[in-house]
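Student: I would love a firmer grasp of how sequence relates to backbone shape in proteins. Thank you; the sequence and its tokens follow:
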Amino acid sequence: MLMNSSDRPATLHYEANGFRIVAPGHHVLCAVSGEAIPLELLRYWSVERQEAYASPQLATRRLLGQG
């Protein structure tokens, strides 16, 4: 069975001013909460860690080593 790109997470390469889609998909998973983040709503990520966050609070928790 073929999966629609909206059914699976995208693979992204995070850069300082945006991200590049490596493998298509509709969303990425938050590195802290595991929550699906639609690509059009993705605003927070770490270039160093190459991971996405669902909110600024979750990004801060991760950067402080709490998530």
User: Anything to note?
Assistant: The chain has one domain: 5-63. Strands lie at 11-15, 18-23, 27-29, 36-38, 44-46, 51-53.
